[in-house]
Amino acid sequence: MRPHEHPLVRWAAQAVPTAGLRWDTDGATVVTATGLNRRDRIVVTGSASGAQPLVEAALAALPHHVVLGESSLVAQLRGLEVVAEFGWMDLLPTDPAPEVSSVGVRWLDDDAVAPVLAAANPGSWVQVGEPSVLGWAGAPVHAEQDHEIASVGALAHCAPDVAFLAGVTTLPTHRGGGLSTAVCAFLRDHGRRTRGTVALMVDAHNEPAIAVYTRLGFTYRAVTAARMAS
């Protein structure tokens, strides 16, 4: 994988050796990622003219996969209909990472994470026990204490050079106090040390979450998921 490539492609390409395909031209790259982060995707970057035939070839092989790419690119591709629009946020090794305290945040075992997910986000895209999880971290209600975990998050579905944040959630009774920011800062810093680039996906309308990630140095990129037009 070429380090200069779009982090979205570098992240998706982890699926190629076992459950994916890859097409390249001078102006575009398409990677298929079956089952990655609970979805079957065809990830595309580059120019529309270069991407069009590659996407068509990928959909011919995998017609039920969803095409995913930056919104400005997907909007130019023919033969697709939009499924969803959301955000891909990333922090590159050369990007500044504002210092944010993560005092009190620590790595957790599954038993400590499970009740927080069950109470705050039972439908989390990452669940306890998933083999893709590198580690769960969490913050207690009070930094000086080591119990009563109120916010958790994970590094999961990570590529060799792209750490991926997921499963970030805080108990409703403790939201707004900066706990998720501390957890994300802890995971961000570990991801940068071990993988270089850190990334995540976020709902386009989740303004509080986007604000948190922006304060941590992440850049928002609008992305669109689309399927083959019927």
UniProtKB/TrEMBL annotation:
Residues 92-230 form the N-acetyltransferase domain. It comes from the Bacteria. Gene3D superfamilies: 3.40.630.30. This is GNAT family N-acetyltransferase. It comes from Rhodococcus antarcticus.
